Amino acid sequence: MTTMEGSNMQTLSSEMPAMVDGVKLAAVATVLYIIVRCLNLKSPTAPPEVVYQDTPLSHYLFKSCPMLTKEYIPPLLWGKSGHLQTALYGKMGRVNTPTPSGIRKFLPMLDGATATFDLFEALQDHSTGDDITMVICPGIGNHSEKRYIRTFVDYSQRQGYRCAVLNHLGALPNIELTSPRMFTYGCTWEYGAMVSYVKRAFPETKLVVVGFSLGGNIACKFLGENPSNQERVLCCISVCQGYNALRVQETFFQWDQCRRIYNFLLADNMKKIILSHRNSLLSLSSGNIGDADMSRLCAATSLMQIDDSIMRKFHGYTTLKDYYEMESCMLHLHKVSVPLLLLNSMDDPLVHQSLLAIPRALTEKMPNVMFALTQHGGHLGFFEGAMLFPQPLTWMDKIIVEYTDAICQWEKNKPVCQRSSHQDVDSCPQCTRETLSG
Prior knowledge:
Mean pLDDT: 89
Keywords: Cell membrane, Glycoprotein, Hydrolase, Lipid degradation, Lipid metabolism, Membrane, Serine esterase, Signal-anchor, Transmembrane, Transmembrane helix
Protein name: Monoacylglycerol lipase ABHD2
Largest sheet: 9 strands, mixed
CATH superfamily of the domain at 49-244 and 328-414: Alpha/Beta hydrolase fold, catalytic domain
Number of helices: 15
Main location: membrane
CATH class of the domain at 49-244 and 328-414: Alpha Beta
Low-confidence stretches: 28-34, 421-427, 429-438
Membrane topology: Single-pass type II membrane protein
Order of helices and strands: HEHHEEEHEHEHEHHHHHHEHEHH
Strand order of the largest sheet: 1-9-8-7-6-4-5-3-2
CATH architecture of the domain at 49-244 and 328-414: 3-Layer(aba) Sandwich
Helix content: 40-55%
Structural class: alpha/beta
Distance between the termini: 109 Å
Family: Belongs to the AB hydrolase superfamily. AB hydrolase 4 family.
Number of strands: 9
Shape: globular
């Protein structure tokens, strides 16, 4: 019996190293599997899916914008994860961020608010020889000093564009509020004031409307609110917006893609911005915000709770549903007649995939709309790079400028009577000749 036990012990001890090695190998395999799944390494790169109608303009854009048909290749090791793309954008913004030199403008509003924007002159002539200004609306709580905005502005300046960047009301830490309200999801007053200033200051300039995330909602809503807002506008580009404010907030309570965690983080950031203006919001006698609202704000853990306790009251909305419906661009998108490029990413953790049915449906009804959907990119990430380190310019920066260049050239090549000035066809000799020869 003792001999058998000793033999078994000897056999077991001889097998132990192999068992330990097997456990280690299994652990390594498990970790690698988790990494591959989390980083989405097996996902193939692909060109963006482009939804459009068959028009002369869309044909021209595909010829003039090779990025619409080329693969978007994110950094190999982490760029296929929408979470990492979004996190890197949120924490770092961009790499090797330039510091463009601009002039800050202050615009008094009718309700006593003071809107601000930064104006950056072009660093060279535009390829068409025209004076063109990009009027840019940043994302939630953002402004001209954010790194992704600075990178995009610097690149646009070098391509011959003047840039005007809105600073969302209350977003700049060193600018005090002069009225009892801040920026909201869809208030277009400050953006409209900036556009009006640019039109007055530069009577010959043509405008390119650019909106990022929440800024995309504001930009599209502004264009659709009044036909006159589209005068002298060549095109509009909206990046990573959610299109339907109510549906966006509903999806933020889902745990899918960690959306509930993002909701908490975004809410925490909004709380900090609002509380930094607590004294101004409470001291201005005409405000709708009181101490009880501030107490509810401090306890809030979601954007919807913040919107209900604070944001909807800036414009007197009685219900949260009314606030979301009236502040969303959904009511106005169908009235935008200028060329409109809508950009989104499939792995954007902030924009639920069900929301992407909205731009698809819009494209089917409106020939001026083009919807481009990338496989990767996250929320306002769109980093490019070979292996680990991203390039200073992103796919997003380059596609906006490439699309805009193409639209500017398209407009330049059109007969005078067909340009955005809406000149009468009968007064255009070129069109008269073409009509007679046709």
